Amino acid sequence: MTISDVLMVIAVICIWSLLLVNVALIIAGYLYYIQTESEGVPEIKGEYPFVTIMVPAHNEGVVISKTVESLLALDYPHDRYEIIVINDNSSDNSAQLLGNIQERNPQRNLLVINTDSVTGGKGKSNALNIGFARSRGELIAIYDADNTPERTALKYLVAEIVSDSSLGAVIGKFRTRNRDASLLTRFINIETLSFQWMAQAGRWKLFKLCTIPGTNFIMRRSIVEAIGGWDVKAIAEDTEISFRIYMMGYRIKFQPKSVTWEQEPQTVKVWFKQRTRWAKGNVYVIVKNLPLLFDRTASKIRFDILYYVSIYFLLLISLITSDLLLVLHAMGYVHTTIAGLSSFLWLLAIVLFVVGIFVTLTTEKGEMSLSNFWIILLMYVSYCQLWMVVAAYGMYNYLKDVIFKREAKWYKTERY
């Protein structure tokens, strides 16, 4: 075998190993969805626990009013939760809009914290720490500033966490509110359902593990106090805090019946900036937690560590290597005897990709359609390939931050 053949074989094995892991997660996730449909949500017995809902916001005037109004309308006893909006160093009309809502709801527990460039403006983690210092709840829920949770979202999260003392946090599901705005938002809608939520369901079913998203989740106050709050250096503060919860011996459960709707990027420019930020944040978490692979006390979370390492390093390198070799082979610069096999496996991977997503879409009303079939095919050859650029650029930005010792700051996603 030539060097090209060896490299191609290694790349194909890596890609297909991860692909089969994803297939296993989809199958397990689908079984979990069936299970949750039959079991329902636990009931809250006795007095409802007091909950603090925190909303970090930076220049969110376009969406913040709708978000707060939806939180005020939650199906949860109004005297058993408070809302803290951290209006973090905003230069738009957010403070005025939030003040108007306070005037219209004088009897409600709604606190607005307006920070400046000295106390705030240093990222979501810092904003959450500011809000937590003023909070009173025994449970802490987080919602992003563009979210409109369904009325039962909070109650379902609370019901799960109070029914099981082994749970440190419970996460819900977020859906794409503007999914029909553009082709990009249709891609994001499918990605959210398939690669985020079905994978979360599968990981809970198989390993009793979930990663906290950035929104629609609840956690115990005692945990935040024990870990000293959010890591201000972490851009992906949700993933980072998940690993710390794992290490405390708690589990994080996924309850798909708790749903919030959020706004997604409608242009490639905004999407690329958002996703490279996520990639950079996840690389930080990977590097920070890599030593846990050799820690006996972290045996239960090794799958998650290896999963993230595989996605952001192994898969990225393997995809770039295989694509590059196939292109060079077609141009006649290198010769590989397994190019035909690689092409066959590539086509088979597309089939598994489409089937896996269709299985996922069956769990959501209104998502099964012929138009979505073509969207999925187009998504594979376009949107999914952009992921390699996003991951590589995110890693590059992480290295720049390390070299130049730059602090975390707000990278606001454009709202509509």
Note the main attributes of this structure:
eight-stranded mixed sheet; 13 helices; transmembrane; Nucleotide-diphossugar_trans; Glycosyltransferase family 2 protein; transferase; 55% helix; glycosyltransferase; globular; alpha/beta; 416 residues; 8 strands
Overview of the molecule:
The chain is α/β, with parallel strands linked by helices and 416 residues long. 55% of the residues lie in helices and 13% in strands. The chain is built from 13 helices and 8 strands. An 8-stranded mixed β-sheet has the order 3-2-1-4-7-6-8-5, sandwiched between helices. Strand 1 (51-57), helix 2 and strand 2 form a beta-alpha-beta unit. Helix 9 crosses helix 10 (302-331). The chain is globular. It comes from Paenibacillus tianjinensis. The chain crosses the membrane at residues 6-33, 305-331, 343-361, 373-396. Keywords: Glycosyltransferase, Membrane, Transferase, Transmembrane, Transmembrane helix.
Helix and strand arrangement:
Blueprint: H1 3-39, E1 51-57, H2 64-72, E2 81-88, H3 94-104, E3 110-115, H4 124-133, E4 139-142, E5 148-149, H5 153-162, E6 167-176, H6 183-207, E7 217-220, H7 221-227, H8 237-247, E8 251-262, H9 268-289, H10 302-331, H11 339-361, H12 370-381, H13 383-404
Parallel strand pairs: 1-2, 1-4, 2-3, 6-8
Antiparallel strand pairs: 4-7, 5-8, 6-7
Helix pairs in contact: 1-6, 1-10, 1-11, 2-3, 6-11, 8-9, 9-10, 9-13, 11-12
